[in-house]
Design goal:
By secondary structure, the protein is of the alpha+beta class. It contains six helices and 15 strands. A hairpin with a 2-residue loop joins strand 4 and strand 5.
């Protein structure tokens, strides 16, 4: 068992905490045993926006620490504070009415404070740990229980008497957009509703869809692998495909897929529906390959800055190569790089 105060704060990994409705944690330097998480989403049946934020405290024997979370969204603020470890986390939620076509942001502020309150007694003493990271921190232990730390025992008179000390703080933001109607009878309304129904991490707007493509080595029909006459084809995606085609000509197996089509494709390939699949966001392509050509497209893809799905993720199959340019995205799920080994 370890009671080390210096458990470093966790970063929300890009493929998880950088989703548009779920926050990425920022300002992670100098945190001590603190982790913040903020999310925001809306109910498509009512357009009620729900923002949520949570502060977690890691570590043992945090008997005199306070954790707080302040959540602000759309001009409304909610704050909660709790003493730990009776509460290892503290959270708060905001609900308010949203409107179609609008974007809403939630900001969470997370803080952990040492109150320096003396909770001593016959079985209790303070200990000082100045060993782990060059800091000096205080903990409170029940000396009737064993411990395994090189702490220095202090007399009660030496216990910290200063005012509250901030041990760690961080903040994060999350954003969601309520899609506007594309007009009565517009097919795009049905497609956008699929993004809501399938719980994807982004709801596209009408203007993001197209029914044709210009400047491409491939036709719109070759790049639209969905069920509708509309598709999302990102502006940065087409030049990458053209460059790849000029270096190593290929056949498109699949590119854009609406959520329902993505679900069918995943099932047919013995996989599972992934809400963040880049095929639904307009910057991914599956190329027809063989075992002898697969590595060629992997090499050219990497040279063009693409994320290339390993064959292990494809069940060892070499029938296609998946390439996407997720780190160029400015809307939808955004990333600062590719998954490990891609």
């Amino acid at each position: 068992m370890t009671n080390n105060l210096y458990i470093l704060a966790c970063l929300v990994i890009a493929s998880i905490s950088a989703l548009p409705t779920h926050a990425q944690e920022f300002d992670d330097q100098g945190e001590v045993g603190i982790y913040g998480y903020t999310s925001i989403d809306f109910d498509p049946s009512t357009n009620v926006v729900t923002a949520y934020s949570e502060t977690d405290v890691y570590g043992e024997a945090l008997y005199f620490y306070l954790a707080s979370v302040v959540l602000t969204s759309n001009g409304v603020t909610s704050q909660q504070t709790a003493q730990v470890p009776s509460d290892s986390s503290v959270s708060t939620t905001l609900d308010y009415q949203g409107s179609t076509g609008n974007t809403y942001t939630a900001t969470g502020q997370h803080e952990v404070v040492m109150t320096s309150k003396w909770l001593g007694g016959a079985d209790s003493e303070y200990y000082k740990d100045d060993d782990a990271f060059g800091f000096i921190a205080w903990q409170f232990y029940d000396i009737s229980n064993p411990w395994e730390f090189p702490f220095t025992t202090l007399e009660s008179a030496e216990a910290p008497e200063l005012g509250p000390t901030t041990l760690g703080e961080t903040y994060d933001t999350a954003q969601t957009s309520i899609p506007a109607s594309c007009g009565t009878g517009d097919q795009r309304n049905t497609i956008i509703q699929e993004y809501v129904t399938y719980n994807t991490v982004y709801y596209p707007q009408c203007a993001e869809f197209a029914q044709s493509v210009t400047g491409s080595a491939f036709t719109f029909q070759q790049l639209n692998s969905g069920n509708y006459s509309w598709a999302i084809l990102r502006s940065y995606f087409i030049p990458k495909l053209n460059s790849l085609e000029s270096s190593a000509p290929f056949t498109v197996r699949s590119a854009y897929r609406n959520p329902a089509a993505e679900s069918v494709a995943a099932t047919n390939n013995n996989g599972r529906f992934v809400p963040g699949s880049r095929h639904m966001y307009g910057d991914a392509v599956d190329i027809v390959t063989t075992q002898s050509t697969w590595s060629t497209y992997q090499t050219y893809g990497h040279q063009l800055g693409a994320c290339v799905e390993p064959t292990s993720v494809q069940g060892g199959s070499y029938t296609h190569a998946h390439l996407d340019w997720r780190d160029l995205a400015t809307v939808g799920p955004t990333y600062t790089g590719c998954p490990k080994n891609w």
